Amino acid sequence: MEGETAPSAGRASPLTVPIRSLGANHRVRIAQHLLALEPHDRYLRFGFSANDAQIQRYADSLDFERDDIFGIYNRRLDLIAMAHLAFCADGKPSDCAEFGVSVLKSARGRGYGGRLFDRAAMHARNAGIGRMFIHALSENTTMLRIASKAGATVERDGSESEAHLLLLPATFDSRLTELLAEQLALTDYRIKVQVKQFRDALGGMMAHRSAVSDAQRSSRK
To answer: Which of 1, 80, 87, 174 is 20 to 30 Å from 130 by CA-CA measure?
Structure first.
């Protein structure tokens, strides 16, 4: 668990990677993201070999009023990485929050897991949370390494491990940083939506022209 010292500053600014908060309108894409995880990744994320039905129930049960979900979208609007910051289930004030993360295999090696951890830690700090923890399988070395690099202390107990990170009190700078990060992510998302709509419309127009051209050639025969 975390010692008596505050965590280090961690990685570079989370503004580097657009990470946006996800609401209930993203539930379908969250489910799609989790269902796209390979069997071993599901095992590491949930601590057991979750099947499709169990993952769908998890996605359906997400409480967007109580907890916070963060995600990273690519240019095709695929949710390639997401994090779940879970607070006290009964809705009462709590001094700790649990962190979970998943990254698609195609998006690995870009530091997304660490970025999501930093983003969640900043949000928890600004929400008045004093401690963030991760419960993970001991073989999930990537997740435990992310927590350790952020300043958490990891305790292993056989096949399972826990990492606890003490969070510093919120400051004007931390609140402003989170606000800017969210605004950047929202702008980035809107641009991606517009670009995708343009590409889809262009693709539809090209397909229509091709179909008309084929029909005209057939009529001449």
So the answer is: 80
CB 70 within 8 A of CB 22: yes
Secondary structure (3-state) at 191: helix
- Position of tokens 């698609």? 104
Q: Give the pairing of strands 96-103 and 131-137.
A: parallel
Local structure of 24: helix, strand or coil:
helix
Tell me which residue of 47, 50, 88 sits closest to 66, measured CA to CA.
Answer: 88
Contact 2, 167 (CB under 8 A): no
Residue 107 tokens, joined: 């998006």
pTM of the model: 0.79
User: Cα 151 to the chain's mean position, in Å?
Assistant: 20
Burial of 184 (0-12, 13-18, 19+ CB in 10 A): middle
Residues 6+ apart with CB under 8 A from 181: 14, 15, 19, 119, 122
Beta strands in the chain (DSSP E): 20-22, 68-73, 79-86, 96-103, 131-137, 153-157, 160-166
pLDDT, tens digit (0-9, with 9 covering 90-100), for 60-107: 999 999 999 999 999 889 999 999 999 866 544 468 899 999 999 999
Contacts of residue 52, Cβ cutoff 8 Å, sequence gap at least 6? 35
